[in-house]
Specification:
Number of helices: 11
Radius of gyration: 19 Å
Structural class: alpha/beta
CATH topology of the largest domain: Rossmann fold
Number of domains: 2
Number of strands: 5
Distance between the termini: 31 Å
Low-confidence stretches: 205-220
Mean pLDDT: 84
Helix content: 40-55%
Order of helices and strands: HEHHEHEHEHEHHHHH
Length: 260
């Protein structure tokens, strides 16, 4: 397990310990094993994180836990039928765990009708439920769904780390003017910035280290934010990222500077 994955698990462990765990989370990235780790952490009663050998952990690993409902796209679509089935599941009492868990893989494949029905669940989530929506991209996901979830940006895989994007983000955070060779470089820059700010915002109270924010100059550039400010800033930059193929690059940078 890489350090960035441990940070996310530590974050959810802290939420669980303080009894302030939210209901609906949007996991952005391609790391489903980490999402399952979060679910095991929530359900496991044997360990501060998760033991991986107890009854709950074993059944979550095999995806046949009675308090877990998993939805996956069929033919690149999630139907309203599956959403209604999940709504019925969440209304039931827990069988063994403290929470009923709903995981939606490939949430960007929610059909219009299914997404509309699912919004009702997000607006009034049942007590003792945990909803995890997993997406690899935000295109196609209703903004109203995005706005109703706490956002967790999953760490890059080692093969996805782009040193040029890291340098650009570092220069940008220090107030330097930056230019992009093409849209692909612009896209990598935005995503690296989002992940970097995620690390800074979420882990600043636990002294988490960030490879982009280690220098004194970077630390001075970013001020402390209240939790509601953090989520708002990330949400706004996320919207810019979703428009990355059409938005003017200089306009995007100026908007981000205004947010920070």
């Amino acid at each position: 397990m890489i350090k960035e994955e441990e940070k996310i698990l530590d974050y959810f462990s802290l939420l669980k310990k303080r009894r302030i765990l939210g209901t609906s989370y949007l996991f952005i990235g391609d790391n489903f094993s980490l999402v399952k780790g979060v679910v095991k952490l929530i359900s496991c009663s044997e360990n501060a994180l998760f033991c991986d050998i107890c009854w709950d952990c074993e059944r979550i690993n095999s995806e046949n836990h009675p308090d877990l409902f998993l939805i996956e796209p069929q033919n690149f679509s999630i139907t309203i039928k599956r959403i209604k089935e999940s709504q019925g599941f969440l209304q039931l009492k827990s069988f063994h765990s403290n929470k009923k868990v709903l995981i939606i893989k490939g949430g960007e494949n929610l059909g219009h009708e299914a997404a509309g029905a699912f919004l009702k669940t997000l607006e009034e989530p049942p007590k003792n439920s945990f909803i995890a929506i997993c997406v690899s991209k935000l295109e196609g996901l209703l903004p109203t769904i995005v706005s109703r979830c706490r956002k967790i940006f999953l760490p890059f895989k080692q093969t996805e780390i782009d040193s040029s994007s890291i340098r650009l983000v570092s220069h940008f955070l220090n107030g330097e003017r930056i230019k992009f060779k093409n849209r692909k470089e612009f896209s990598h820059f935005l995503w690296t910035l989002i992940v970097s700010l995620r690390d800074y915002f979420v882990f600043q109270t636990t002294n988490g280290n960030n490879h982009l924010l280690k220098t004194r100059e970077n630390q001075d550039f970013l001020k402390p934010y209240r939790p509601e400010e953090m989520e708002g800033i990330l949400g706004d930059i996320l919207k810019i990222y979703s428009m990355r193929n059409n938005i003017n690059e200089n306009l995007a940078l100026n908007l981000i500077k205004m947010k920070l």
